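Task 17 of the worksheet. Students: predict the tertiary structure of the chain below and write it out as structure tokens. Keep your answer in the requested format; marks are given for formatting as well as content.
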Amino acid sequence: MTQSWERQGERGSQFMLRLLLLCTRLLGRTLTRLVLFPITAYFLLTATAARSASRDYLRRVLGREPGWRDVARHFHCLANVSLDRVFLLRRGATGFDVHRHASADSMEITTRPSGCIMVLAHLGSHEALRLRAGQRALQLRVLMDLEVGRKLMSLLVALNPAMASQVIDASQRGPGLVLKLRDALEQGANVGIMADRATTEERAIEADFLGGRARFAVGPWMLAAAVGAPVILAFGLYRGGNRYDLHTEVFAERISLPRGQRDEALRSYVQNYAARLEHYARLAPYNWFNFYDYWVSPTGSAPSPAPATP
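Model answer:
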């Protein structure tokens, strides 16, 4: 990868969110949406690496060479979702048109007394996932590495202190983190874990994704196996205007990593996740918000994935 997403994503998101936060206080959502056009133009002209990453991704997901309008639409979608994040955190579903697309078994799991693991991605808005039909709130506690996302966390504190207090700090790995997750699940919370990015230091497995090979962290699947909770895939896709489509589906009733077959099982889970992530990316191609060099090689030229064991 040409640039670490840990630094690139934090810097870009922080600047945009602070600018949008100021605009929302002064102008409200309707007028601030007009400000998104010059913001989009600014990033389109100055964010060279992100623009290149956008073209690479769009070429894969659209199946054609993207034009500048495609890249602009991609950037503008990010701006809209970032703006809506502010309002979703401040006042919930008020003013939004939320459509839920959930399998019956996923709905049943989210209503159990004990919680589940909700695997999230930088696709659309995970804030929108807190909203159910009828504007009932979904209890969702997000796992976040506060050493990586401390600036975004400061914005969350400013917008919704109660929700910020429910964030589970993932910066300290090991048995302590597993105990935090189990405690949250026993209290009936659904724990959201991002699974579409891997830091440069953490263990990861390469999988086929949108015609290439990409690195996916194994941590989410190992944590899910450790707590023994059901796993649901969840995506809040932005559809323009004030509409969001919320998709949930059961990924596994339980993640099983048999002794002696752990690496093989992890590869299978990661590849299945990559296939479902690709499905939803194709449903809403401009909702993808990984603006960095995501792929490690084209399909067929990547080395075999390294074992996930220490």
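Marker's comment: Residues 5-46 form the longest helix (42 residues). Confidence is low (pLDDT under 50) at residues 299-310.
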